[in-house]
What we know:
Elements: H1 11-36, H2 39-47, H3 60-67
Amino acid sequence: xxxxxxxxxSQAVLAQRIGWCADLVAGMVSGLLAERWNTADVExxxxxxxxxxxxxxxxxWMALRRLGWTVATPVGxxxxxxxx
Length: 84
């Protein structure tokens, strides 16, 4: 459903939007992996605890937030927090 008009989206438009979102997330994940794929950060994840000793949340996006491992969307792009 289109949020502005309330109209039903065509399959083609829906597929286009899903593809755009998947590309956006793939780009953010690539950046995060490039920054965090190292021995020290992998060990932090493997421990299951943050720097304060608290257990990491089971949802990956919340665990990343707790660790301060953030990504950002390109300038001018606004998406739901869970996508980021």
